[in-house]
Amino acid sequence: MNKIPYVERDYIGGGLKGECAYVWALFLADEADMSGDVVAYDTWRTIADQLKPRAGVPTPSSVYYSDLEDAITEWSRQ
């Protein structure tokens, strides 16, 4: 098991900040890959690819993915 990432939220909307969501998506993809869950790996990897920092493209200030929020809640309980 990897170290659980930090959670950083937007003060106005309450969504996850873009960088935080990206780190969480990578973390969850790695965990799914290690457990052999191909569907979950593809899901988290797709989200990570959407949030990946790119030159000339601003990082989202706030994002909301219900699956990501549910996963963060689940991992926070452990």
Largest sheet: none
Shape: globular
Query: Which structural class is indicated by helix and strand composition?
Result: mainly alpha
Strand content: under 5%
Low-confidence stretches: none
> What would the average pLDDT be, to the nearest integer?
91
- Total strands: the figure is 0
Span of the ends, CA to CA: 11 Å
Question: Can you walk through the features of this model?
Answer:
The chain has 78 residues and is mainly α. It has a domain at 18-69. The protein is built from three helices and no strands. The chain has helices spanning 18-35, 38-51, 66-77. The longest helix is centred in the middle third of the chain and has 18 residues, at 18-35. The protein starts with 17 loop residues before the first helix and ends with a helix.
Task: Describe the structure using short key phrases.
single chain, 78 residues, mainly alpha, 3 helices, 56% helix, 0% strand
Protein topology:
Elements: H1 18-35, H2 38-51, H3 66-77
Helix pairs in contact: 1-2
Short description:
The chain has 78 residues and is mainly alpha-helical. It has helices at residues 18-35, 38-51, 66-77. It contains three helices and no strands.
